């Protein structure tokens, strides 16, 4: 009887490449700028070729020239500085109170039971529609503008904050409890860091709403401000100045978004 030999099976370790790159997006520098430049060039070509009526859209080159004139004349800062001041005060008040209330709602059941119905009732109200009421309550000066922006940023910040607190991984909280951490330590070391991504995402939305409300507030009883500048240009049907004002708002929005992005990189460096 012949001997049969069974060959040994050799197992070699094969490295499996991580395929979750889509869940960790990397920056693609220049793509966004290229899209903006291409869009501007198309509009410029369309207006020069006659495909786009000058009564509908001005030439981007004319808008850029108007923007340069604003810069050189000093009118840009006369309108921009009051707007930035109103935006900073109103957003700081609304967002800080909103974050505080949202954290309380997320941590305490009695606060949640009492305030969530109130926030749910206030959230769908169009804040711009309340501008005349704020003028009656606070007058037509700066206080009504601060109050409108603060109220407009308060409700979305509250909703985003307590939603972020709710989404913190409960297994991490139980782990902290098993290690004997105090309630305050769990909140400071686990809950707040875990909720920070959602809070910052909510701030992006709140800042966009704040800019919209800023323009609306400045269109009523403001001598200087981006909203007042746009209103004056629109009443004169000066499309170059109007679009220059829109450009300023767009740059402001992009700048604030970049600031939030930098804050995210600093505060959320632990995510890797």
TrEMBL record:
Pfam families attached to this UniProt entry: BPD_transp_1 (PF00528)
Keywords assigned: Cell membrane, Membrane, Transmembrane, Transmembrane helix, Transport
CDD domains: TM_PBP2
Domain (ABC transmembrane type-1): residue spans on this chain: 80-260
Membrane topology of this protein: Multi-pass membrane protein
GO cellular component term, pick one: plasma membrane
GO-annotated biological processes: alkanesulfonate transmembrane transport
Keyword tRNA processing: no
Subcellular location per the Swiss-Prot or TrEMBL entry: Cell membrane
Main location: membrane
Membrane-spanning residues: 31-51, 87-111, 118-140, 146-165, 205-230, 242-263
The keyword Transmembrane helix is assigned to this record: yes
InterPro entries membership: MetI-like, MetI-like_sf
PROSITE patterns reported for this sequence: ABC_TM1
Cited function: Probably part of an ABC transporter complex. Probably responsible for the translocation of the substrate across the membrane.
Entry-linked PANTHER family: ALIPHATIC SULFONATES TRANSPORT PERMEASE PROTEIN SSUC-RELATED (PTHR30151:SF38), ALKANE SULFONATE ABC TRANSPORTER-RELATED, MEMBRANE SUBUNIT (PTHR30151)
Family: Belongs to the binding-protein-dependent transport system permease family.
Protein name per its UniProtKB record: ABC transporter permease
Protein source organism: Pseudosulfitobacter pseudonitzschiae
């Amino acid at each position: 009887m012949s001997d049969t030999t069974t060959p040994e099976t050799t197992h070699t370790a094969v490295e499996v490449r991580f395929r979750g790159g889509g869940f960790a997006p990397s920056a693609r520098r220049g793509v966004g700028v290229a899209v903006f430049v291409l869009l501007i060039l198309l509009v410029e070509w369309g207006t020069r070729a006659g495909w786009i009526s000058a009564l509908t859209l001005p030439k981007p080159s004319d808008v850029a020239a108007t923007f340069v004139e604003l810069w050189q004349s000093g009118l840009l800062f006369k309108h921009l500085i009051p707007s930035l001041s109103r935006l900073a005060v109103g957003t700081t008040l609304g967002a800080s109170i909103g974050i505080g209330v949202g954290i309380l709602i997320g941590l305490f059941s009695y606060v949640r039971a009492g305030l969530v119905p109130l926030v749910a009732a206030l959230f769908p109200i169009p804040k711009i529609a309340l501008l005349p009421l704020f003028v009656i309550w606070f007058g037509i000066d700066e206080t009504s503008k601060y109050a409108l922006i603060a109220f407009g940023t308060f409700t979305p910040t509250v909703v985003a904050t307590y939603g972020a607190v709710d989404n913190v991984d409960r297994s991490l909280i139980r782990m902290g409890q098993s290690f004997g951490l105090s309630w305050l330590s769990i909140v400071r070391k686990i809950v707040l860091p875990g909720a920070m991504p959602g809070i910052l995402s909510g701030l992006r939305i709140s800042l966009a709403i704040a800019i919209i409300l800023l323009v609306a507030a400045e269109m009523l009883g403001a001598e200087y401000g981006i909203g007042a500048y746009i209103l004056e240009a629109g009443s004169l049907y000066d499309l170059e100045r109007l679009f220059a004002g829109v450009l300023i708002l767009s740059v402001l929005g992009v700048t604030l978004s970049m600031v939030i992005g930098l804050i995210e990189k600093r505060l959320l460096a632990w995510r890797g």
